[in-house]
Amino acid sequence: MSNRPTSSPPIGPPGGGDPTKKAMNFGPSLKRLLGRLSPDKPIVILIFALVTASVVLSSIAPKILGNATNLIFDGIVSKQLQPGTTKEQAVEGLRASGQGQLADMVSGMAVVPGTGIDFDAVGKVLMIVLLLFVCASLFSWLQAYLLNIVVQRTVRRLREDVEQKIHRLPLRYFDTHARGDVLSRVTNDIDNVAQSLQQTLSQLVMSVMTVLGILVMMLWISPLLALIAVATVPLSIMVTAFIAKRSQKHFVAQWKSTGGINAQVEEAFSGHELVKVFGRQQEVEERFRKQNEDLYESSFKAQFISGLVMPAVMFLGNLNYVAIAVVGGMRVASGTMTLGDVQAFIQYSRQFTQPLTQIASMTNLLQSGVASAERVFALLDQDEQSEDPKGAKSPTVDKGRVKFENVTFSYKPEQPLIEDLSLTAEPGQMVAIVGPTGAGKTTLVNLILRFYELNSGRITLDGIDIADMTRDDLRSRIGMVLQDAWLFGGTIRENIAYGKPGATDEEIRRAAEMSYVDKFVHSLPEGYDTVIDEEGSNVSAGEKQLITIARAFISQPSILILDEATSSVDTRTELLVQSATAVLRSDRTSFVIAHRLSTIRDANLIVVMEEGRIVEQGSHEALLESRGAYFRLYNSQFVGAEI
């Protein structure tokens, strides 16, 4: 058994705290997320240029379209006036007949009495407007296409960074974080970031530029109406900020709960056989129900509260629209504005509030994406394992002599584990490590592999401190077979060859023969090409263990580590494995962690550990004669004198 600290419960990563008490740091996280677009900066600049062009063309079009309205309205009014008179004469005639308000309106119009509608001029205006809208749509499509490229590249780089980060993280991180939560950060959260960027980035830029462009056009047409139009903007911003602040903490809780429920499902699914054997379905279902309820509540609150933004902004926009329509109508009647300008302005006012509404409606999606981004950034910001030393050393000989010199190590400073341990394993020796659960046996071999760094002391391999070697160099000299046999989805041939990339069929077959895999492979329909499913359920536990042993054999390591490697095989297979390892151990150092003392009777050196210390070491016979800790362990298994 391992002495590693137990993993956090599957309800979420440890140390996360209560997400409802402290919302994430939205601004810096959003800035950092947008900063990841910088490698595609030239394309981003082009996108902004296309957005600007599209907005400019879309903003000019209503003003020009208003000219068509003026031409039609002016033509209709001019048809009602006396032909052959001037505009001034027509106005005076209206005043003289008591139609002063109509006279004011006509005075502000470009009419030629009696001429009617100039359809040629109207047609030209409409063609110009059509061309403007077509070009604006084309630019908008092109910027959306380029944005898709930028977003997908950014997310691809983010996935690559996370993948590389995972390989640089120390084993301690995975020991203290639920696997389902880590998987959720790598998959669900990154997918959510991609979706949020795709759906909000372009629209946000377009909306902001549209607001600015339309604001300029409204000021050009009528500063008074523009003032009315923007009067509701500060109120809209205040409403949006007020609602967003209260919904953000629920988005953080939502994605934290998503990670927790993934961890719960992954754990329950991986151990579903044990759940059924021990009749714990009801407990698992209750835990899932609670996790699911937490996710439901946080998701409902996040979406409901943030969903209030859009109707609130729309309500303010409608009030604004009514005010503009009333004031604009009065100004047309007074002759201070043309009908076309009022029409254009009303269209602008709708276009002005629409992007504000869109921005408001996207706040929930943006908040959700940034919440996911922060979870991904939290993974990327984790402390990494120490870098390999510059000018790394490598043993000039490859014999496998391992020496522990006054080694001290603990997972937590307040809980000492291994203290001042010294041990020498000579080449070709089989060193068996035994002791009760929690004694530090697996920790000992993890230190050889540099999965953890020492507190003090050193470990040497063929005279070289392993801290002075690169991890790749060190681990390439070590073959390891774990207590839990792990196979990858693929053929038996590929699983064996995993220990030596590019291995020939002859090398694979020889490793299989040495580990007695060859004996059962021929009974399978496809032989070495039999595909092992993801769970390895189409081969027995013992056969899986033999395949993992073959995988270690093919790598021809200087050091062989067997962590309860024979725990899943029957007695006959155990004898075969022992014979195979005896051949492999020739001129190689081997460490065998064993609870079944029958597997290590022929070990050159048996090390007995208790509470992180070596309390005895020697041969099987010598340790029995000393009648110490090993004698008690032996009797508990074979004599039954002590338990």
TrEMBL record:
Membrane topology annotation: Multi-pass membrane protein
PROSITE patterns associated with the record: ABC_TM1F, ABC_TRANSPORTER_1, ABC_TRANSPORTER_2
Location of the region described as Disordered in the Swiss-Prot/TrEMBL record: 1-24
Keyword Transport: yes
Coarse class of the protein's main subcellular location: membrane
Compartment(s) where it occurs, according to its Swiss-Prot or TrEMBL record: Cell membrane
Domain ABC transporter intervals: 402-636
Keyword rRNA-binding among UniProt keywords: no
Domain ABC transmembrane type-1: 45-368
Family matches, as Pfam families: ABC_membrane (PF00664), ABC_tran (PF00005)
GO molecular function, one term: ATP binding
Residues spanning the membrane: 42-61, 125-151, 204-221, 227-244, 308-330
Alphabetic keyword roster: ATP-binding, Membrane, Nucleotide-binding, Transmembrane, Transmembrane helix, Transport
A GO cellular-component term linked to this record: plasma membrane
Similarity annotation: Belongs to the ABC transporter superfamily. Lipid exporter (TC 3.A.1.106) family.
Protein function: ABC transporter involved in fatty acid import. Transmembrane domains (TMD) form a pore in the membrane and the ATP-binding domain (NBD) is responsible for energy generation.
PANTHER family xrefs: ATP-BINDING CASSETTE SUB-FAMILY B MEMBER 10, MITOCHONDRIAL (PTHR43394:SF1), ATP-DEPENDENT PERMEASE MDL1, MITOCHONDRIAL (PTHR43394)
Name of this chain's protein: Fatty acid ABC transporter ATP-binding/permease protein
Source species of the chain: Rhodococcus erythropolis (strain PR4 / NBRC 100887)
